[in-house]
Amino acid sequence: MLPSQGDGNVRLHQVTAGLDGLVAIGWRQTDFDIDLVVWRSQDGITWQSASDSDSFVDQSGAHVMTALTAFCTGLVAVGADGTLEGSTPAVWTSP
User: Fold this and answer.
1) Backbone conformation region of residue 6, classed left if phi is above 0, alpha if psi is from -120 to 50, else beta
2) Which of 15, 16, 61, 72 could form a disulfide with 24 if both were Cys (CB 3.0 to 4.6 A apart)?
3) Considering the chain, what percentage of its residues have pLDDT values greater than 70?
4) pLDDT at position 31, please?
5) pLDDT at residue 61 greater than cutoff 50
6) Burial profile 34-71: b = 16 or more Cβ within 10 angstroms, e = fewer
7) Which among 38, 26, 18 has a CA at the least distance from the CA of 66?
8) Cβ(51)–Cβ(65) under 8 Å?
9) How big is the CA angle at 9 (ends 5 and 10), to the nearest 5 degrees?
């Protein structure tokens, strides 16, 4: 089971196999904010949140990962960063 991500409506979007196990991405929506969430698992049964810190996003607004893939040295996720007025494409990488 994926760990709780605090208050709000949490959506799981995608799971992929990485070099060190499984990675799941999604987002949490609260009243005025949407933040990305990331989970990691070695076995697909026990999951740990990888997005509890502000290292992923350091500003307010909407942040959503919509696709994730593994490549030879890590992971690449794409999505959007933005506000209620609009958003811009975003890319995250992880070794």
Assistant:
1) left
2) 15
3) 78
4) 73
5) yes
6) bbbbbbbbeeeeebeebbeeeebbeeebbbbbbebeee
7) 26
8) no
9) 50
Q: Is 84 left (phi over 0), alpha (psi -120 to 50) or beta?
A: alpha
Strands 33-41 and 21-30: antiparallel
Whether the Cβ atoms of residue 22 and residue 40 lie closer than 8 Å to each other: yes
For residue 85, the tally of other CB atoms under 10 A from its CB is 6
- pLDDT for position 84: 62
Residue owning tokens 């994926």: 2
Per the DSSP assignment, residues forming a β-bridge with 9 are 29
Q: Are the C-beta atoms of 83 and 70 separated by less than 8 Å?
A: no
